[in-house]
Amino acid sequence: MIKLPKILKIGLPITAFSFVFLVFSLNKVNAQTQRTMTIVPPSVIANLDPGGKTEGKLKVINDSDTPLTFTAIMRDFVVEDSAGTPKILPPDSVADKRFSASKWVAIYPSTFTVNPHERQELSYFLQTPADARPGGHYAAVIYTPAVADGTEGSGASVSTQVGTLFYVAVNGPITEKAEVSKFSANPFQEYGPVRILTQVKNLGDLHIKPNGSVMVSNLFGGKVAELKIEERNIFPGGITRDYENVLNKSFLIGPYTAKFTGTYGKNNNLPLIASVTFWIFPWKITLVIILVIVAIILGRKYMDKNKGKKPEEKKEQDKPLDTPEIPTA
């Protein structure tokens, strides 16, 4: 059991993107317009004690040429697939309340209009209950478009929902447990590239972000390649996440071993290990080469056999045998 430190972290997860572009398609009478917005940040990460609280700012930027009106509402979210896709849940529909956090967050203002190429700053207030369960809790601020041009009765609307994800870790004793539930590659193929799948299952109480690499070695233990996995969050409660690496080499031959070594956890010190062996062998071209070699050997033997013979002997050999006459009665 591990005690989470009392550290507050608010901001973007470590990712290649610092913001998210979200595109809305609006349908109007006799016209169709495309409008865009930017959410900053796309996620908020907070570590709090039970009964703890924090606050911060969110920004909605209107990148289009027309006003956009939104209503901000709180919803719980879960992840159910191995791609890490957040699923926004309807109000009070969470079957497992262990991970709910939507009632802990308030947004102000809840309804607002953003003029073209301007931004709206929102304030969020987050407070955990005094009896909050230690571990991970998750919610999302959903920005639901209302009247796009800021006036009632315009008829412009969008159905897409976008939002900011909240990852809330409540300090206290938790279980951190994960495993490599699948580590595979095509066991036999003629050529590269080779796709290697790593699947990690989070059996603990808090989201994790494993890091590690896949080391590929040949028959003699020599290093062929080292492939890093992307650092992605894995939702708790038995949810899996898939990571795919590609050994991008065309000409390979023989047996190879891929070994995954990674770590996870609050202190990033819990191990994840798996290995798999696969074969690369170009059997079609090898078969052609063998047939060519056999043909050359047989042709050489035939030439050697006839090399020392005189032309008369060859003619004698080639002369058809006399057939004895059959006496007639």
Describe what this molecule looks like in 3D:
It is a single chain. This protein is mostly beta strands and 329 residues long. The chain folds into 2 domains: 2-174, Immunoglobulin-like (Sandwich); 178-280, Immunoglobulin-like. It is 10% helix and 47% strand. The chain has 2 helices and 21 strands. It has helices at 283-307, 311-318, and strands at residues 2-3, 20-28, 31-40, 43-48, 53-62, 68-79, 86-88, 105-108, 111-114, 119-127, 135-145, 162-170, 173-174, 178-185, 188-189, 194-202, 211-217, 223-228, 239-247, 254-264, 270-280. Strands 4, 6, 7, 9, 11 and 12 form a 6-stranded mixed sheet that branches. A hairpin with a 6-residue loop joins strand 6 and strand 7 (86-88). The chain is elongated. Mean pLDDT is 81; it is low at 1-32 and 148-160.
Write the layout of secondary structure elements.
Layout: E1 2-3, E2 20-28, E3 31-40, E4 43-48, E5 53-62, E6 68-79, E7 86-88, E8 105-108, E9 111-114, E10 119-127, E11 135-145, E12 162-170, E13 173-174, E14 178-185, E15 188-189, E16 194-202, E17 211-217, E18 223-228, E19 239-247, E20 254-264, E21 270-280, H1 283-307, H2 311-318
Parallel strand pairs: 4-12, 15-21
Antiparallel strand pairs: 1-13, 2-3, 3-5, 5-10, 6-7, 6-9, 6-11, 8-10, 11-12, 14-16, 16-19, 17-18, 17-20, 20-21
Produce a short descriptive summary.
This protein has helices at about 285-305, 310-320, and strands spanning about 1-5, 20-30, 30-40, 45-50, 55-60, 70-80, 85-90, 105-110, 110-115, 120-125, 135-145, 160-170, 175, 180-185, 190, 195-200, 210-215, 225-230, 240-245, 255-265, 270-280. Residues about 1-30 and about 150-160 have low confidence and may be disordered.
